[in-house]
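Researcher: Let's try something more involved. This one mixes different molecule types, so please make sure each is placed in the same coordinate frame as the others.
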Amino acid sequence: MNYWLMKSEPSVFGIDDLATRPKRTEPWDGVRNYQARNMMRDQMRRHDLAFLYHSNCEPPGIVGTMEIVRESYPDPTAFDPESKYYDPKSDPDNPRWYLVDVRLKRRFKRMVTLAELRDRVDELGDFTLLRRGNRLSVMPVEAATWQRIVELAGG
DNA sequence: GCCAACGTTGGC
DNA sequence: GCCAACGTTGGC
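Model: All components are placed in one shared frame. Result:
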């Protein structure tokens, strides 16, 4: 069992959108960063859990948890000229971008804000999200860090 | 809106 | 392979 954190801008796609999807499930499309892609493609397994993090909003923070319900497959938006995520260099015979399907597992009763996480950096171990200059949209989370944040959210 | 930090691109 | 220019992310 691995733990992850996945960022999304709520103005584009947030927890309210995920909550209203059929089976509360959605393909996590549009990731166009190789490091993030590699983690989704090579390391994410069915039943892994991920925090849903709202970025580029006020306030930013973790709003709930998701479960990986389908392992990686090529991102179809990369092949669609109408999509804002279209990438002409991604060939269906040799796809460049991959995604996983996620299902909303739990909406936190209260958001755990980035500011709160920063305040508790000493309790959270090595947490990529809090490293200076970090911009990864998909990142691993250590089990102990995961547990601590779930506690902060109210169990 | 600003801007630091980072990733990508492309000329050489 | 180097690196300057440019684009993006995302907190503030």
